[in-house]
């Protein structure tokens, strides 16, 4: 006997047995099949001279399949921004129906993210995440792909891990504040950011002429800092931003303006003396040593106990001052002034003596 097979009932039959089947064994097992199509068979008888009969009636059958297909090969994952593209190589199984795709995070169970099997010719899949908004930045995900045959037998999982780039800035600190300290420095405080991956904070300082520049950086549990480099009497603006583990920086808080001022006056000028001549009076004193010294004020008094009259309109920068209206017998007091506006006027008034014959000082 010869056995013929076709995928159609009335045509396309081809012989499948390599040698004639013996008369005393009228049976044949076709192993070149898979679940899915319906196969049709016909039989011919052959005599000793090689003559063949007509075809028998047609019978049909579909094999039962309980074997899973092979797993997909060479599974890779590529993350771009917050999206992941998977690709793989198809297994060699002929009865391939398609693929299932799974995803999980933080050791959770795999969740199937392709509701229906992907077609067998689909060898890529793009995961757009939750509500098409992508996946959580900075997180690691694990993907799995399995193959399905026509009986929905599922292959073992092919797995791959991928890290999602963290491109999302943290939320900024809720607020920030700056104020001058009694020492004339600036203390900046802020409330923490609500982001979970904050690793620290950055404090920025600006002026009317300068943009915000990074002043200092703190750890994630520090919410205050001191600016010891600010010039007293000058207006500064302070802002704070949060920094996450991936180096993303949040928006800055609103600017807080502050003018650093101390509460301590500089030392009083020493060695005050008055020299007289026919044109007026010269007042001299020793320089005050203070880093925030702004200058000096000169006062004239008719008597040590009377009201003092300020002679200069702006702080004097030198250690001498000429009073053309000064007269012998009057008194002078020199005070020191710092950039915070603190004035030390505790010096004892010094009297002006009699005029000298010449006045080299005035030259």
Rg estimate, integer Å: 48 Å
Give the beta-strand count.
26
Uncertain regions spanning at least 5 consecutive residues:
357-363
Q: What percent of residues adopt helix (DSSP H or I)?
A: under 10%
**Helices and strands: which structural class?**
mainly beta
Distance between the termini: 141 Å
- Counting DSSP H or I runs of 4 or more residues, the number of helices is 0
H and E string: EEEEEEEEEEEEEEEEEEEEEEEEEE
Oligomer: single chain
- Assess the beta-strand content as a share of residues: 35-45%
Descriptive account of the structure:
The chain has 363 residues and is mainly beta. 0% of the residues lie in helices and 39% in strands. The protein contains no helices and 26 strands. The protein has strands at residues 2-6, 14-15, 39-44, 59-61, 73-80, 83-89, 96-105, 111-112, 124-127, 140-149, 158-163, 176-180, 186-190, 198-206, 213-219, 224-227, 236-244, 256-258, 273-277, 280-284, 293-301, 309-310, 320-323, 331-338, 343-344, 350-351. The strands form seven sheets. Strands 21, 22, 24, 25 and 26 form a five-stranded antiparallel beta sheet that branches. Strands 2-1-3-4 form a four-stranded antiparallel beta sheet, with no helix packed on it. It has a four-stranded antiparallel beta sheet with strand order 8-7-10-11, with no helix packed on it. A hairpin with a 5-residue loop joins strand 7 (96-105) and strand 8 (111-112). The protein is rod-shaped and about 160 Å long.
């Amino acid at each position: 006997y010869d056995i013929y097979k076709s995928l159609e009932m009335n045509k396309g039959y081809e012989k499948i047995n390599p040698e004639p089947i013996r008369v005393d064994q009228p049976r044949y097992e076709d192993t070149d099949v898979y679940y899915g199509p319906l196969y049709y068979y016909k039989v011919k008888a052959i005599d000793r001279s090689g003559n063949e009969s007509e075809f028998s009636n047609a019978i049909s059958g579909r094999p039962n399949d309980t074997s899973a297909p092979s797993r997909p090969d060479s599974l890779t994952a590529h993350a771009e921004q917050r999206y992941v593209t998977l690709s793989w190589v198809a297994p060699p199984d002929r009865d391939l129906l398609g693929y299932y795709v799974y995803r999980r995070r933080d050791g959770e169970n795999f969740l199937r993210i392709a509701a229906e099997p992907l077609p067998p010719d689909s060898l890529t899949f793009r995961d757009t995440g939750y509500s098409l908004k992508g996946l959580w930045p900075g997180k690691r995900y694990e993907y799995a792909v399995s193959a399905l045959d026509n009986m929905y037998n599922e292959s073992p999982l092919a797995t791959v891990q991928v890290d999602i780039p963290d491109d999302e800035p943290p939320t900024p600190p809720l607020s920030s504040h700056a104020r001058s300290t009694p020492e004339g420095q600036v203390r900046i405080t802020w409330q923490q950011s609500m982001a979970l991956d904050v690793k620290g904070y950055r404090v920025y300082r600006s002026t009317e002429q300068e943009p915000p520049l990074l002043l200092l950086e703190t750890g994630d549990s520090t919410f205050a800092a001191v600016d010891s480099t600010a010039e007293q009497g000058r207006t500064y603006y302070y802002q704070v931003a949060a920094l996450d583990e991936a180096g993303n920086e949040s928006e800055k808080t609103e600017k807080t303006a502050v003018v650093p001022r101390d509460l301590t006056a500089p030392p009083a000028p020493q060695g005050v003396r008055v020299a007289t001549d026919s044109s007026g009076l010269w007042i001299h004193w020793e320089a005050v040593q203070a880093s925030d010294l702004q200058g000096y004020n000169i006062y004239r008094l008719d008597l040590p106990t009377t009201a003092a009259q300020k002679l200069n309109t702006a702080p004097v920068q030198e250690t001498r001052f000429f009073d053309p209206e000064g007269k012998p017998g009057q008194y002078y007091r020199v005070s020191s002034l710092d950039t915070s506006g603190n004035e030390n006027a505790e010096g004892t008034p010094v009297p002006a003596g009699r005029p000298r014959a010449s006045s080299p000082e005035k030259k």
